[in-house]
Fold this sequence. Notes:
Low-confidence stretches of chain B: 136-158, 254-265
Order of helices and strands of chain A: HHHHHHHH
Structural class of chain A: mainly alpha
Distance between the termini of chain B: 44 Å
Helix content of chain A: 55-70%
Number of helices of chain B: 19
Radius of gyration of chain A: 16 Å
Oligomer: heterodimer
Largest sheet of chain A: none
Amino acid sequence: MGLLTMDLTTAMAWMADYAELIAAHAAELTELDRQIGDADHGSNLDRGMQAVVALDASSFDSAADYLKKAGMTLVSTVGGAAGPLYGTFLLRFASALGETNDAPATARAWRAGLEGLVARGKAGVGDKTVVDALAPAVEAMEAHTGDVRSCLEAGLAAARAGRDATVPMVARRGRASYLGERSAGHQDPGATSITLLVESALAVLP
Amino acid sequence: MISIVVVSHSRALARAAVALAHEMVPEAVRPRIVVASGLDDETTGTDAVAVAAAIDEVDSPDGTLVLVDLGSALLSTEMALEFVEPDVAERVRISSAPMVEGLVAAAVCASSGAGLDQVDAEAGQSLLPKRQHLGHPSSGQQPTIRSTPAPAATAIAPGDELELRVVVQNQHGLHARPCASIVAAMAGFDATVTISRADDPDELGTVDARSIMAVQGLGLRRGEELVARFSGPQAHHAHRDFAELAARNFGDGVPAHQPQAVAQTLGGSPIVELPLCVDVSTYGPGDPQEEAARLERAMAAADGFVEGLAARVPDGSATGAVLRAIRSILADPMLGQGFREEVQDGASAVAAVRTTMAEACRFFETMTNPYLRERGTDLRALERLVLRALVDEGDLTIADVPAGHLVLVEELDAITATQLDPRQVPGVLTRTSGSNGHGLIVARDRGLAVHVVDAG
């Protein structure tokens, strides 16, 4: 209890680290998307995250303020479905940040983000989407609320497992669903990029 | 009029689609259409903030329909509805229609002044014509003519639902214009009217008779049979007008044979003819000043008479609206000026009225808009009224009609229709009465049965 997880500095570090990870994986994400989508997930997210890190740091009072602005920035700059989906995730995540910044609060914020994202995309577990990594990650976080680090570690492990489990799935949502059975055998780009978001959250813990 | 927002991944695509839709509607009646598409001119993508701004920009009490293309266009639009004020969001519908087809259908429908629900429904039907076309391969150019031709229109009434079966006689089948006639004729009734193909016994393809896209989508060809069903408070009226319209080949012109529906409904009632021509043989013209004064008095009398008719119909009724429109025609400076010029040139008041009205009729007849073309009926009715005011300056009401008689009238105008009592007159037989005519509107409003008969 009492360990700060999400002050403004941490939130900015999280976004900066995620922007770097996305830049590093942009080609890989786009290649995954080329196999089952429209080959723009990596470049879209990269464009969006570059816009987020370009935000004027001095204009924010709190992590919540900053992450809301980051969410709106993604909404306006990503262009593809990841814009409204990641945007909604960050907006809801930011709104759920409360006074306490412990592990249960961390899990609550991730849960709020997941629920926003599900409400927006209307995808469920097994549809071969971002939800397949994020939903088990949030459940794992909620099951490990001793401290923030172990909470996020459990979340990351579950996200990776969930991401890998998308490979044999047949897409039922998003552009990949046009492919039907042919979408099986490919890892979902959204599940891949959200796993990186958990990875960044863990990496920037003080 | 509602507004339209187009949300596409590509700004160029959205702009081209809007240009296509604009081609379908004249500028004067075009709904406002704005584009919230692409991240910039080249970068594909959608932006919920831009969509929200577009929705705010075109917001009006009539509401906004949003047409979207793929994936994130829908997500961004849904998100945009969370960004705008809740009362604005309540006036917005997101269409499930394919963007191009839906946009064209929505623009056409909106330009007619239709409300948001109706435009949304129309856009939602916009794939039907294409589907129907592909589902009914056009290889068979020969119409399917049944060996025993069904009557053009026969009516039965199982329970509280009325049914009408019509074999399409139109040379080109039920194309856009006849479909538009059906939609227009059924629009005013408090009744549910559906149409299906007779060769679709499960009626899986049943459509709303008020959707031009859907009715067209039935793809009915010449010789094919449709089944129309009517229910609701005004089912009988809708049924009657549908039969009347069918007998005239849905406005495409009367087929060579006498429509049987009419013959069946005459059922033994005696017929009395209401002559329309005004006897002006006794008219003695005075000098131009006298003629001008008489004309002024006659026009005032005619206007006062129509005003008196209007005062006796319910406020807000269709009949009242038609009578107001007719008074405004009479008040048109073009007519008054025409009368005066003719009289100044030495014509009698009678000749001045006839010449000027004939000119005005010709003017309207050149119009392509069927509604305006049929204003000729109003002008002829006004001509008769003014002439009668000139010759006897007395009572302008129509001749007494014996109760229980069908009234035969050459042309059913609104002024005559207002004076026929539906409780006394079982029906009106007329030789000409367009589907958009004010006489028919008044008859429909007052519950007066109208049958259009062949010129023979």
